[in-house]
Write a sequence for this structure.
């Protein structure tokens, strides 16, 4: 029996159902639930589901690497913390910059300057202080720039890990997305080993296609074995689309991570 827990992004499964019903269905199947932007959700309805919401987006607007954008990010992070309190959600996810509805950076950056790195680290330290006061953890997610999020600064796992290490707070952790890492960097097991002390959660989907494990090139049972060997106790979340039926996709996800080779 593995020591980690499984969660599912409700934004990408059971798309024929209203959002609260998606969350309830995910919970019925034995998974924790995750969501993105909370501003367009019926929070009261989500609370009534009784589901465990394990992660949500931790800001609405703003960026890490310029002072005005940082102030805006922190302002909306405080609003997000209030929603996280209502949902009893432990982790709030952020990115190198705000993303639009197509996943493109609101403030793209062809070059990330040393000053941008310093500003981002300072912003994340302030964010960690907010998380500490609220008893929550912010997670910084790596993204790929080749397929889904071109122009996003601080996107690679190498970048997000460096920033989390620099801040050095238990209230800022890494959301290690292995789908994005496979596209951008590869060597997933080595990456997990390197990042383990700083991981707040792990997200998965297969490559190409961003669908459930078993639909692409990543051998996720080997990743599961590595996580078990390393003693990982956190959440592994499916943030991907169903190749066909959502329930079948979740069954494949469970099977990929339930058996340790």
């Amino acid at each position: 029996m593995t020591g980690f827990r499984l969660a599912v992004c409700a934004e990408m499964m059971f798309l024929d159902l209203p959002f609260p019903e998606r969350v309830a269905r995910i919970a019925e199947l034995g998974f924790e639930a995750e969501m993105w932007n909370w501003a367009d959700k019926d929070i009261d309805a989500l609370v009534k589901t009784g589901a465990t919401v394990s992660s949500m987006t931790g800001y609405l607007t703003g960026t890490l690497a310029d002072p005005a954008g940082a102030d805006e990010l922190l302002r909306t992070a405080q609003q997000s913390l209030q929603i996280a309190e209502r949902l009893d959600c432990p982790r709030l996810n952020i990115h190198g910059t705000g993303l639009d509805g197509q996943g493109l950076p609101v403030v793209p950056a062809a070059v990330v300057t040393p000053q941008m790195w310093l500003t981002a680290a300072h912003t994340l330290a302030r964010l960690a202080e907010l998380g500490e006061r609220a008893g929550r953890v912010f997670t910084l997610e790596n993204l790929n720039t080749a397929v889904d999020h071109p122009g996003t600064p601080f996107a690679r796992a190498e970048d997000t890990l460096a920033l989390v290490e620099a801040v050095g707070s238990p209230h800022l952790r890494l959301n290690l997305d292995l789908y994005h890492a496979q596209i951008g960097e590869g060597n997933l097991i080595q990456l997990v080993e390197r990042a383990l002390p700083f991981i707040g959660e792990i997200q998965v989907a297969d490559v190409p296609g961003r669908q459930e494990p078993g639909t692409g090139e990543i051998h996720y049972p080997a990743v599961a074995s590595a996580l078990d060997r390393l003693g990982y106790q956190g959440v592994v979340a499916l943030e991907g689309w169903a190749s066909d039926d959502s329930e079948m996709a979740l069954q494949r996800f469970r099977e990929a991570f339930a058996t340790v080779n």
